[in-house]
Amino acid sequence: MKEYITAVLLLFILIFSVAVINSNTGGKTSPVLTFLLSPATSSTSGYLKTASDAPATRKWRKDGKTGRWEKMEEGLARSRASIRRAILERNCTSRKRQSYIPSGSIYHNPYAFHQSYIEMEKRLKIWIYKEGEPPMFHEGPCGNIYSIEGQFISEMDENGPFVTRNPEEALVYFLPFSVVRMVGFVYEKGSLDRQSLPDITSDYIQVISAKYPYWNRTHGADHFMLSCHDWAPYATIGRPVFKNLIRVLCNANSSEGFFPTRDAPLPEFNMGHKLPVPVVDPSPLSAKTMLAFFAGGNHGVVRKILFKEWKDKDPQVQIFEYLPKGLDYGEFLRKTKYCLCPSGYEVASPRITESILAGCIPVPISDSYVLPFSDVLDWTQFSVPIPVSRIPEIKEILRGIPESTYLKLQANVLKVQGHFAVNRPAKRFDVMHMLLHSIWLRRLNLGLEDV
After folding, report:
1. pLDDT tens digit string along 387-396?
2. How far apart are CA 108 and CA 106, in angstroms?
3. Beta-carbon-side half-sphere exposure of residue 73 (alpha carbons within 13 Å)
């Protein structure tokens, strides 16, 4: 009888929590919450699969004593319970004073995200393998279109608050290789042969798995790599050894083997010698003299369509293959209402982060791009995604957006800027910590007993 009452109460809580989320998200259950709301025995079609609350005891218990791994799994179970409680109570629980409290429509559910972030700060520990020497390992570019790769590797190697020196404490393990450096040192300029990339990464995995027990005990499911190079997916596919690896990639193309249930999107930046600074006071609406703007190379299928349809066709939709000398790119961003962000050779584009940091509403144009932090952020609240098939309708779509809606989108762009800010050292809720939160979510959703 007691078990029956408990089951009924749990079912009531589940139904009530779904109702709370639906009322907060317009009737849609957000991707990041799916695994928290679903029973442990059911499947889900959301971004993250169902994770059991039961700690993985049968593999890690030794001599009748509670092992370190079992304690970790019990801690993760408590984190999931805390997130559920935050959803139900529409409030977060923390012993620390919170300097920033997520709120508003830019989040699928701010309560779930905030509590998840608090839990991450409490439990996430990362251990970095020491094998390999720069420049291919422990080093990456910090001042070009692939710069976020080098910035992240450097941030990790400088022993931030989430890095541990004790591998037995780690929840996740970082493979600190740079695909950008691999391509630069292994391939001749102009070569399109990518066949040896998986050889390099699999050889690295063979070295660390022979020296340490951590890869073998989970088959790499609690390990991650990060890269912004277009070829990064090719460095970690085609071999059984990569099956469980968490890949954090700029080239987050769901039609080419990127799995949002396991992999995490990485925002792309085109940095110079200085870190990008958000424009917190954008031009007023009266100064926005252009409807839409894009400047960039005419490469890739999407851009070829864009150039064919709009280049030199309409003064309100300004399309440049390369911005003429004497014109300022930043000024164009400031005086444009909507900044077009079409895919190039690959799906990702630094125009998305440039637009957000400039206070311009981004217009992603792609059919298979998994947008950064979409587990947490509701991109419909601060961007206007347009399918490739509707490129000829760009002007009609954008002109059809009411001014009140535009102002709301633009205000939300300013609210989300902090999540795309690059700081060294990293700060709470900035792009580095948002990346770690993406990795944390996938580890939180991992049941080691199923590996």
Report:
1. 999 999 999 9
2. 7
3. 22
